Amino acid sequence: MPRFADHQKTLIIAAFLVLLSLVCWMLEPKFMSPDSIGLVLKYAGLYGIIALGVSFVIITGGIDLSIGSWIGFSAVLLPVLVTGNQLHPSLAVAAILVLSAAAGTGHGLLVTKLKLQPFLVTLCGLFIYRGFARVVSGGREQMLPESLQWMQSSLVSGRPIAALPVPAVFFLLLVISAVAAIFLNKTVWGRHMLAAGRNEQAARFSGVNTNAVRILSFVICSVLAGLAGILFLAETKSAQGSSFGSFFELWAIAGAVLGGCSMRGGQCSIAGVLLGSLMVADIRQGVLFVVDDNWKEVILGLFVLGGVIADEFMSRWLARRK
Amino acid sequence: MIPLLSARGLHKHFIGVHALQNVSAEFFAGEVVAVMGENGAGKSTLMKCLAGVHEPDEGVIEWEGKEVRVDTTRKAEALGIAFIHQELNLCDNLTIAENVFLGREPRRAGIFVDGPAMQRRTAELLKRVGLHVPPGERVDRLSIGRRQLVEIARALSQQARLVIMDEPTSSLTKAETDILFGVVRDLKAAGVCVVFISHRIPEVMVIADSVMVLKDGKNSGGLTRAEMSPERIVSLMVGRDLDLKQRRPASTTQGNVLLSARALRTAMWPAHEVSFDLRAGEITGMAGLVGAGRSEIARALFGIDRPVSGSVTVHGQTLIPGNPRAAIRAGIVFAPEDRKEQGVILEMAISENIALPGLNRMARAGFVNDRAVNAQADAMRQQLSIRTTDISKSTGQLSGGNQQKVALAKWLALRPSVFLLDEPTRGVDVGSKREIYEVIESLAAQGAAVLVISSDLEEILRLSDRVLVMHEGRLAGELPNARLSEESIMNLATGRAAA
Q1: DSSP labels for B369-421?
Q2: Which among A147, B218, B274, B348 is least surrounded, fewest beta carbons within 10 Å?
Q3: What is the pLDDT of residues B104-133, one digit of tens each?
Q4: Mean pLDDT of chain B
């Protein structure tokens, strides 16, 4: 089926994002206040990092449901390592990222070598890592260690450029997006990943190591989830193993889908995912100001549904025109 | 006597192919008719037109002398025509009874399936087809042969008067075939007409009352029981109207052996070992009927499938089995039969497809040099005359012939020494076909070893220096250039002769 060229789709998403922001602004002028913009961008930054991660898995035709649990696990593990075990903070962060890579490798191996479905593998991950989070935290709330308090302002909510209401985490997202875009579009591994996502069989017939790129996509996703866990902890200062990060994977997937990723794989643009994450944050904030916070899941669900339906109709329309 | 079914002047076009050209047929009640012909002769298309799977573009179909329109399978079923596909149409996870009455379940009170009645009626039908298995057995526990009998039971449950079978014996054992033929004789005795496609001349000689032969989408002739002989059948299948195809002169020098396959056994035909060599500068044709195991050999050579046993040696080095990347490194490349799913990635740009296998060579420190990618694609476009204005267009927008050129182009830059080409011109227009032939010949002239797997005998004759003929997983024989003819190949491919 013919699909849009990625850049056309990205433009449509960008236009829609602007329209949405304008409508929110008209309904509630406070929406465009510096504070509000800062909040939207902070959410976009935090959720955008995991949306980017899950996009890599979606590109290769998979899904990762374990992100939220992994965020919870890494968020409680950091205080446990630093405060409880007197580990140097930088070593603790490195350990968490290495552990994340190992978890991603595990998902990838189960999917490629045992041919299990990504949905099931990561669903089990969702339960197991949530359990780990409760076990290592001993059921107690874990606090961001004193030695890491600087992270909150330097990496998440502080404004690197005082004149702009843009929080640090959004800049971090921009940097990660740039690296991701270069990786995906300019490197051999990225091209192989796109090829394998579009048609795994043909890619294998062309000598692409399709198993390796699928494993890599899970590794990227889990590492970004581990990083996000640390950032979410820095933002909220404390984490409960039983609930921290719950359902975050669904917000991430919603961002990726609103950004134009096809769950069939092979179609995803990093710019699109960035815009999709902004849209998710926009919708959250808009609902908070204009409707009522309790409605946010309903409204987001309707937006994603609408986006998918619009994509389908546009594709059919393009197919007819050919 | 009025024929049960007669067809006159049937035409059927598919994109770029005139599959049926003025084909006529008559089938009588109580008759067993074998429909024969080479691959691509139009047999399956004709059967599908009679069974309502396809609607013919032109022509008349009459049922008991009255003109009918059979444009859906439902209409065909209502008339009494049952069609048994080659790849059987059963739901594996249902029971025999559920399959037999699928969509026509006996009901109670209008909504509930009447299980006992279904079981009872299925048991009666199974007895008629000689299948002694409980009707509640799940279909996936049955052998292919028994599933075939379940299909026939389903046909009987529809009171079919004309049963069409597409290569019913292709995956049956000898014993299963005998059972099937027993059922066919019973059907015949009950006045049912059985029409079946077969490639196996010995079987046809045993069971058929008459033979109808198609060639290149046209009637090639028919034989009554009295006229039937293996020689006459082959001569009708091959035809005498061959216009002179320009054959390339056989290479006179014997090149070095570049690839040797030894005692290769594939999962499809694990009982048979296949061994052969491919030599530098030589085009080796591989002929055989569909299902003879040719593609499986190529897939094993290229490492897409791991062979059950055996070894592949290239330039004297044994390949790691089941690893396409190792095969490519050793200089083997493969253009698979299924171009759209395996040969190219339709959604990707032409230039990206061409670059994909050699992306590492066009990268520095892992970063792809897009200028090199585009330059290479441009060079290939000129070398293979890929007809497009823009190499950044998606490959799916090209015609079949040009897609095939892309599927070849992506390998050329790697300068491999062994080319495995599976049906290199299937679904390709005549002009592109000639161009692809020229490319294949120039590859051999430059010293590559080329294996061309093809079901198109003219293509095999046109290109090959020698031909390997496969029959049911075995290498039935090897024909040197001097002994190549359609007859010699077909005799080996149908298992009539050993070389």
Answers
A1: -HHHHHHHHHHHHHHTT---S-TTSBGGGS-HHHHHHHHHHHHHTT--SEEEE
A2: A147
A3: 888 888 888 888 999 999 999 998 888 888
A4: 88
Contacts of A189 in chain B (CB under 8 A): 366
Question: Looking at residues A281-289, what average pLDDT do you find?
Answer: 91
Residues in contact with A271: Cβ distance below 8 Å, sequence separation at least 6, in sequence order? A10, A177, A181
- Nearest Cβ partner for A198 among B342, B345, B357: B345
Residue with more model confidence, A40 or A84: A40
Q: How many CA atoms lie within 13 A of B69 on its CB side?
A: 3
Q: Which residues of A touch B404 (CB under 8 A)?
A: none
What distance, in Å, lies between the first and last C-alpha atoms of chain B? 45
Hey, what are A33's tokens?
């206040």
DSSP 8-state assignment for residue A322:
-
Structure tokens at B386: 């890929």
For A192, nearest residue in chain B (alpha carbons): B356
Q: How far is B166 from chain A (nearest CA, A)?
A: 29
Q: For A4, name the nearest residue in chain B, comparing CA atoms only.
A: B347
pLDDT at B401 over 50: yes
Task: Report pLDDT digits (tens) over A91-103.
Answer: 999 999 999 999 9
What pLDDT is stored for residue B241 in this prediction?
Answer: 42
> Two tokens at A287?
């609902």
**Has residue B242 got a pLDDT over 80?**
no
pLDDT over 70 for what percent of chain A? 97
Which of A8, A191, A205, A210 is the best mutation test for B, with the most CBs of B within 10 A?
A205
Please tell me the total number of residues recorded for chain A in this structure: 322
Q: Is the pLDDT of residue B190 over 70?
A: yes
Using pLDDT thresholds of 50, 70 and 90, give the confidence band for residue A162. confident
Interface test with A, best of B345, B350, B421 (most A CBs within 10 A): B345
CA distance A45 to B338: 44
What whole-number distance in Å separates Cα of residue A313 and Cα of residue A318? 9
The answer to whether residues A279 and A20 touch, using CB atoms and an 8 Å cutoff, is: yes
Residue B156's pLDDT is 85
Identify the pLDDT of residue B244. 37
Cβ–Cβ gap B347/A199 under 8 Å: yes
The token pair that represents B169 in the structure block: 């014996």
Question: What is the pLDDT confidence band of residue B85, given thresholds at 50, 70 and 90?
Answer: confident
Tokens found for residue A111: 């999917």
CA–CA separation, B414 vs B328, rounded Å?
Answer: 9
Q: What is the per-residue pLDDT across A165-181, written as a single tens digit (0 to 9) for each? A: 999 999 999 999 999 99
The string of pLDDT tens digits covering residues A222-263 is 999 999 999 999 999 999 999 999 999 999 999 999 998 988
| Distances B132 to B18, B177, B232 between C-alpha atoms, Å | 44, 16, 39
The alpha-carbon gap from B405 to the nearest alpha carbon of chain A, in Å, equals: 15
Residue of B nearest to A184 (CA): B367
Chain B nearest-CA distance from A179, in A, is 13
Axis-axis angle for helices A210-236, A188-198 (nearest 10): 100
Min Cα separation A321/chain B (Å): 14
Q: Please, what is the angle between helix B370-383 and helix B400-412, to 10°? A: 120
Torsion of CA B35, B38, B44, B45, to 10 degrees: -110
Q: Do A204 and B359 touch (CB under 8 A)?
A: no
Q: How big is chain A by its Cα radius of gyration, in Å?
A: 20
**Cβ-based interface (< 8 Å): residues of A facing B:** 2-3, 186-189, 191-192, 194-195, 198-199, 201-209, 266-267
Q: How many angstroms separate the CA atoms of A187 and B360, rounded? A: 9
Picking from A56, A46, A61, the residue whose alpha carbon sits closest to that of residue A104 is A56
CA neighbor of B66 nearest in space, from B1, B23, B6: B6
